[in-house]
Structures are given as structure tokens and as C-alpha cells.
Amino acid sequence: MKKIPYGMSNFRAMREEGYLYVDKTMYIEKIENLNSKYLFFIRPRRFGKSLFLSTLENYYDINNEKDFEKLFGDLYIGKNPTKLKNSYMILKLNFSGLNTENKDQLKESFLLSVKNSINALLGRYEGILENTEEIRKKIDQITDINAVIMTIINEVKKVGKKIYLIIDEYDHFANDIIAMGESEFYREIVRASGFVRDFYETLKIGTESVIDRIFITGISPIMLDDLTSGFNIALNVTMDLSLNEMLGFTEEEVVKILEEVGIEEKENLINNLRELYDGYKFNKNAKTRVYNPDMVLYFLAQYKNTGGYPEYLIDDNVKTDYGRLNRLTMNEENRALLERIIKEEGIVAEIVTKFSFDRMYDEEYFVSLLFYMGLLTIKDSVYNVTKLTIPNYIIKTIFWEYFEKKLKEENNIKYETEEIAKATWEMAFQGDIKPFVEFISTNILNRLSNRDIVKFDEKYIKVILFSYLTISNVYRPISERETEGGYIDIYLERDIRIPDVKYEWLIELKYIKKSEKDKVDKIKEEGIKQLKRYRESRGLKERKDVKEALLIFIGKDEYQVIEV
After folding, report:
1. Among 21, 290, 298, 493, which one is least packed by beta carbons within 10 Å?
2. In contact, 388 and 371? CB cutoff 8 Å
3. What's the rounded mean pLDDT across residues 275-280?
4. H or E element: which one contains 26?
5. What is the pLDDT of residue 178?
6. What is the percentage of the chain residues whose pLDDT exceeds 70?
């Protein structure tokens, strides 16, 4: 039985210490055979990037030849090694954790990070390089980042070796600067004569001699366009069809993981994992979707430890920074666009493969950024029209939580969490939906601004309901559930963590303006017919634990609840 490697990204440790490793080494062969030696690859946070880089590092490291069989023997690449295995000195840079307080401190911490990485290289290849202690002393005295890089390039050249350069989190500091709203700061470091651009220009010069291959990862392509003139050699393979499943787990892999970690309850667990964490697709022609790997391992680690479902279904490390989402929606256009995406659970848009900071708030670039962040994914593409969708239930909850926070902040909404919990539990165990609707009407709808009222429709109210239903974790709301009788507006399914919930709910939602109040009776008649039709569907007809309710909202301060 294998140990679950939650939070681990050290390939060697996983292989030597009995941890599960999902074999992705066939992609080493694929990327080696691509039409560029210099690759740029984007995936959302906590999606397995660092582990893949660690795998590359161990495969290509010239010092690992004696350990090749131990590390890779039973994997695809061990059985099908490429000609470049164990043929490089590895220089690995990681730009997370830099000091972004101001330009000088960023430059200083950037330099220190590069020096630390080069010192690690010197220690690793002490038996290959000449006079490593002298080189180290020389580098310690240098205060120019590019001079540091050129020094190590020249020393490697002397011994006739090549470097495989790996850069992890290339955009981490840039994302921090953007999140702080420091646009001028950002421009200073990446535009002409900026130290970041100069750094990448130096790397480009290095490819003319000893830097033979480069693999760069991050979570957004924002810097890629801004660096293009100085570093125009990298091929962006983020959306390459052949690499769609390189990171993330396919369902076949998840099933195998359950077997390897000794979990027997496969079918029910797979159904829940699919709804919670699956859904990602990074090329419009890809046939296979992938699960968020961090979330699957987080869930399974919790499941193994407790023998049941985790109390929190989302790992805090994966949660999108609300500050960043707020920053991206500072302008009214993007805020309205995000609300539309939440209401529609998707949008038709083309994904932009690179863009500069100056275009980040344009609609198509904003939507593309949501895609790169993992908040949207490709649903399908027909005649080159691409539909993006929210990938899974967990990402929906992130959006609902964001929506609830924005409503609360902008309308001075105040309530006790205990109130919403009590109202939701009455639905779940007493079969009484009225307290919940009364809570929403009194505490939320009545307090909304005129700007919010203008946007009122059934979908807007549905998002409000979902946003507050998920606070208590009693129900998992499902929008537009398909039945033989049509699509149910809202189906409230008991949450997997609270299996003893007594009642599930089938809800038809209607909204009319105050000026159309005379239509209530007709709408009521139609709504009741719809509910009865849904109720007759297979899988619902015989169930005694499912209740039905028609909710009619009239303006922002009136409502009717009709239980059928």
C-alpha cells in the first residue's frame, strides 16, 4: 500500500520513501520531441507543476545516472529512455517568496534567489566544475544579476557541459505586484531596461552556448508578452493538445490511485470526486478532462486519516486569493462580466495565449486570466466558437463565496451565521423551507441597492440562494438538473458529509417585477405544473425524502412559498 504524497513535490523522496507516484514520465519524451528546446507552460496553482519539474530535474541530471534504475526503472521513461537522459547540469530557479515591497528590495531578493540557486549547482557539481569554492567567492562579490548568470555560463563552458534551466513560479512576484495594484512598479521591472527583462535577455544569450534547454512554469502568461522582445525564443505549449493530461489526474489514474492507497469504496467515491474536482480541459480538441491533483490528494489524505469525508472539501492552499479576484474586478465592466459568468456558469470567449499588463482588464483578457487561474475551463468548441465553463462544484463554491462577500460589503449586510444555519437545518430536518426564504428576503434582498435591483432576475436570485445555502454545508445545490420532465431550477442534494439529512428539495424559482404582480396567479399555476412534471420523473417519483417548493419573488421585498 502506497503513502499519499499530499503536499509533496520532491520526486526522489516520493520514489525512495514509498509514496504514490502517478506516472507522467511519458511526457518527458513528448516535450523532448517538440519543435523547441525552450518551453513555457502554464497551469493553475497547486496543479502538480513543481513535482513535474522535480521529475525533469532527476531525469536529466548528469549526477543521477547511477540512480536511474532505482528512480525510473518501473516507469514509462525508464523502459523507454531518451537519448538525453542524465546529460545535463541542472540550474533550477524558483521565484516565489521574493520581497515585493519596492523595486530595490525586489531586485535584491531576486539576485539572492539566483545566487542561492547557482550555489546549489556549484555544490551539486563540485566534482565536475573547476575550483567551485573560488567561483562561489567570485559570485558572492557580484551585485549584478546578469553578471552572475554570465559567470556560471562561462564556468560551465570551460568543462564542456550543458545546462538544463528550469524556472518555477516565473510570475509569482509579478502576480503579487499586480495584486497590490502597483502598475508602474510592474512596468519598471519588465519593460525596456527593467532588470527582469535584462535577466531574460541574458538567458537568451546563454542559449547560444551552454544553456541547451529551458522549461518555465507559472500560473499566468501576463509577463510573457511584456518579455517577448527580450526573450522571444520560448514556445508556449500551455494549450498543446498532446500535453493536455501532462498535469492533473485522469479518471483512470484516480481509480488506480484509490487501489494503490488501499481505498475500497471506489464507485461512490469516484462519483463524488468527479463532481468536486474534475472538469479541467486545456485544449478545445482534447477528449479527456483532468482532476485537480492537489485536491484529490488532499481529499484522500483526509479520508484515510478519519475514515470519512473531510469536514472541508477545499484545501485552503487552492482557494483563490479574494484580494486578487477583487483587484481584477475593480472596474465596473469586469465586475459585471464576472457576475454574468457566475449566473450563467460560463461564457463564450476565445482564450488569449499571451497578453501584457496593460490589457489585463480588457474583457477577453480578463476571461482568459480566469481560465489560467483554473476558475474557468473549456467546455466545448463548435465552429471555432469556444464555450468556457466553471469546471466543478468546488470552483462554483469559490465564486458563490466571492459573490456573498461582495453583497455583504457593498450593502452593509449583517447577520449571524447561526441564523442561516438554523434556517437551513429546518429545511433539512423539519422539511420547512419558509424560514430560509424569510431569512433571504429580510436579511439580503431587502437590503440590496438600486444598482443590484436593476440586475434582478431568476438567475441572479438563484446565485444569491446558492451563495447562502453553501454557508452551512448541509446541501449541495445543483442548477438545472436534467430530468425527463425538464430542467429543475434548483435541486438541493444532501451534502456527502451529512448523510442523515432527512429532506432533499426540488425547487422551481420565479421572479416578477412589482409592476407585473397581476401575473402571480398564472405564474403560480405554471410553476406547480412544472414541479409535478419533474416529480413524475424516474428517480424522483417514488422518493419520500424529496420535497417540492415553488418560490415566487415579487420585486425585492415580497415573496410567496407554495409547497406542492
Report:
1. 493
2. yes
3. 97
4. helix 26-32
5. 81
6. 99
Grid cell in block for residue 504: 432533499
Grid coordinates in use for 86?
542524465
47 Cβ contact list (under 8 Å, min separation 6):
247, 248, 292, 293, 294, 374
**CA–CA distance from 305 to each of 12, 295, 299, 300, 310 (Å)?**
24, 15, 10, 8, 9
Q: Which residue has the cell 498535469?
A: 247
For 443-488, the pLDDT digits (tens) are 999 998 877 777 788 999 999 999 999 888 899 999 999 988 899 9
Strands (E), 401-485: 475-483
Q: Which amino acid is at 302?
A: Q
Q: Which residue has the cell 451563495?
A: 467
Please state the domain extents for the chain. 1-22+249-308, 24-243, 322-389, 413-563
Across the chain, mean pLDDT equals: 93
pLDDT, tens digit, 9 for 90 and up, residues 304-323: 998 889 989 988 877 765 66
DSSP result, 287-335: ---BB-HHHHHHHHHHHHHHSS--S-SS-TTTSPPHHHHHHHT-SHHHH
Which of 77, 67, 62 minimizes the C-alpha distance to 31?
77
14 touches 7 (CB < 8 A): no
Report whether 149 contacts 204 (CB < 8 A): no
Name which of 51, 103, 126 is nearest 297 in CA terms.
Answer: 51
Class of domain 24-243: alpha beta
